[in-house]
Amino acid sequence: MINIAKEDHIANEYPDGTGKQALLRIRNLCRTYIMGEVRVPALQNVSFDIGREDPEFVAIMGKSGSGKSTLLHQLGLLDTPTSGEIVIGGKNVLKLSETQKARFRLERFGYVFQEYALLPELTALENVYLPAMALGRKKDEYFKAAREVLGQVGLGERLDHRPREMSGGEQQRVAIARALINKPDILFADEPAANLDSVSSKQVLALFRKLNRDMGLTILMVTHEPEDRNYVDRVIWLKDGELEQHMEMLK
After folding, report:
1. Which of 243, 204, 244 shows the shortest CA–CA distance to 221?
2. What is the mean pLDDT of the chain?
3. 22-249 homologous superfamily
């Protein structure tokens, strides 16, 4: 079985607010969009820490337009903030070049989105091992790794099926397996269950909970569903692009 947690994968230099070593440290993060002569502040001075010693499953919540997905995109290096600091494992990632950011994303992050983003002509196995191919791993290595992660998400018998032959819940689990293939430090999930029925939604959230608890994977998930709080350790609430003062601890 693939070991998601990596003891020496990244060095930590910054403690979080509890004095523990921080995996993710955000300070005064701002994102402003310029639309002609209009400035639209999507994020305003957001600061928080995610510890490394006790990996968390964190939900980012708030009303529509509160900045949830914008925040996730900044943290996942899919967009560039207007100002502020993002430190991951002691590295200020905003100082990386675009090429370095691309490599960092591929090696350190996994992504799951509302849309599954699977290539329709490829099998589940082929979709999953694409990120490992991009890292230049050997064929026998990424074939084995893809089989293992598909087994972990309950799709060990669906390796050769294409997306059209799978349900929405199964396609999303393929997307989760793809996100795990390079053994990420952090999994970013943007409304991962929004397109699923209630049964499949619960299965995906339970899988995230298992990945967090059993494999030590840190997960940051955007959601607007109140019941999703039952699966997470902490909720980060946003309102009008700002971090609300309280953080709900659910452990």
Report:
1. 204
2. 88
3. P-loop containing nucleotide triphosphate hydrolases (3.40.50.300)
